[in-house]
């Protein structure tokens, strides 16, 4: 089986530090790795929600969540899931 190599990108992390980090990930139990993935997803969602609240300061939490869902899913899938007439229109300024 061929060993996968990590993607190379510009980083402020030294190659040695990256090797140590990858080695730690390899030795980490699968459950812990999944926990880290879900934590990163939650963090990304929270950052996106914070950005939406900054751009739309007068929206309720529910409205902000629907703005995020529409942005995350795209117009077509959002409307399939939540319907066109849900009271939460498209994000203005996109397009």
In words, what does this structure look like?
With 95 residues, the protein is an all-alpha fold. It has one domain. It has helices at 15-27, 30-55, 61-73, 75-82. Helix 2 (30-55) packs across helix 3 (61-73) and helix 3 (61-73) crosses helix 4. The longest helix is centred in the middle third of the chain and has 26 residues, at 30-55. The mean pLDDT is 86.
What descriptive keywords fit this protein?
0% strand; mainly alpha; single chain; 95 residues
Helical residue percent band = 55-70%
Mean pLDDT: 86
| Straight-line distance between termini | 45 Å
What count of helical segments does DSSP give?
4
Could you give the order of the helices and strands? HHHH
Biggest sheet architecture: none
Oligomer: single chain
Number of structural domains:
1
Strand content of the residues, in percent?
Answer: under 5%
Number of strands: 0
Q: Return the structural class.
A: mainly alpha
Could you say which overall geometry the principal axes of the C-alpha atoms support?
elongated
The rounded Rg comes to 19 Å
**Unreliably modeled segments:** none
